[in-house]
Every structure is written in C-alpha cells, then in structure tokens.
UniProtKB/TrEMBL annotation:
Belongs to the cytidine and deoxycytidylate deaminase family. ADAT2 subfamily. The active site is at E48. It comes from Vagococcus fessus. Keywords: Hydrolase, Metal-binding, tRNA processing, Zinc. Its cofactor is Zn(2+). Binds 1 zinc ion per subunit. It catalyses: adenosine(34) in tRNA + H2O + H(+) = inosine(34) in tRNA + NH4(+). The keyword Glycosyltransferase does not apply. InterPro entries: APOBEC/CMP_deaminase_Zn-bd, CMP_dCMP_dom, Cytidine_deaminase-like, MafB19-deam, tRNA_aden_deaminase. This is tRNA-specific adenosine deaminase.
Length: 162
C-alpha cells in the first residue's frame, strides 16, 4: 500500500485527485497507476485501470488471475468492472468511498455472485493515511476555488468603480 500511496502523491503533484494503485504478481509490482483524468481529459484514466493496463502488458495477457491490486481508495464501478474482467485474485484498499465505492460502501459489485469472478477483498489498509490524502486535497481545492471566486468578484468591483 505504501507504493500505491507514492502513486497517489504523484497525482496530487499534478493537481489530480490523489488516488494511486499498484498491481503485484509474485511479490513484484508489475503495474502502477495514478489518476490523470484532468491531465488526459479522459474519464477512464483512473489509477486502477492504468495499473491493470500496465500489468497486462507486462504479462502479455489480459488475465491477472494470480495478481493482487492495492489501491488507496475503494474502487468505483468502472474500476471494479476492470478488476472483475482482468480476473484479479484480490483487492486491497485504504479508504472507503461512500459516494462511489463498489466494494462495500455504496454497493458490493466486486462480490456480486452473478459475475463469473469475485476477488478477495480487504479494506482499511493504511486507511487513515489514504483518507487524509483525499481530505487534504479536497480542502485545498475548495480554498483555491473560493479564492478564485473572491478574485473574480474583486475584479468586477474594480471595473465597476472605474
């Protein structure tokens, strides 16, 4: 999970939502990813999908049956779909996502027995550290947005007073 946190910090440096993921095979990291949705302007460039893509390229196979994924935030529906389709053996994540999580928060997509694959799931790994990354990011984002609004209002008032 520490390596997934390192990936999340890369996203934060780019002013992206700080979520990171790594795929592990036989104790070795074979795929890494962090959110780049704002940078790429591509809704599918979530940390998990980027890590899965890199792992598939490494293995030369779309099946990641003996692999584990470590991610700082509970996977969303899209990422859970990728996890199921890639046949990842297990999912380990840090913080819960009550708004979009599909591994126990909002719904349980990853354990839905109607799918032909259900990975093992473990949550709460370095949960406080993973959650704090997100809380800090969104607090700073709200402050930046408030400042932009204040700056815009000051500019309008300046133009009115001229």
């Amino acid at each position: 999970m520490r390596e997934a946190i390192k990936e999340a910090l890369k996203a934060k440096e780019k002013k992206e939502v700080p979520i990171g993921a790594v795929v592990v095979y036989q104790g070795e990291i074979i795929g890494r990813g962090h959110n780049i949705r704002e940078t790429s302007q591509d809704a599918t460039t979530h940390a998990e999908l980027l890590a899965i893509k890199e792992a598939c390229q490494y293995k030369g196979n779309w099946r990641l049956e003996e692999c584990q994924i470590f991610v700082t935030l509970e996977p969303c529906p899209m990422c859970s779909g990728g996890i199921i389709l890639a046949r990842l053996e297990s999912v380990y994540f840090g913080a819960m996502d009550p708004k979009a999580g599909t591994a126990g928060s909002l719904m349980n997509l990853l354990t839905d027995e109607r799918f032909n694959h259900q990975p093992y799931i473990e949550s709460g790994i370095l949960e406080e550290e993973c959650g704090e990354l997100l809380r800090t990011f969104f607090k700073e984002l709200r402050e930046r947005n408030k400042q932009k609004k204040r700056d815009k209002q000051a500019l309008i008032e300046k133009e009115i007073n001229q």
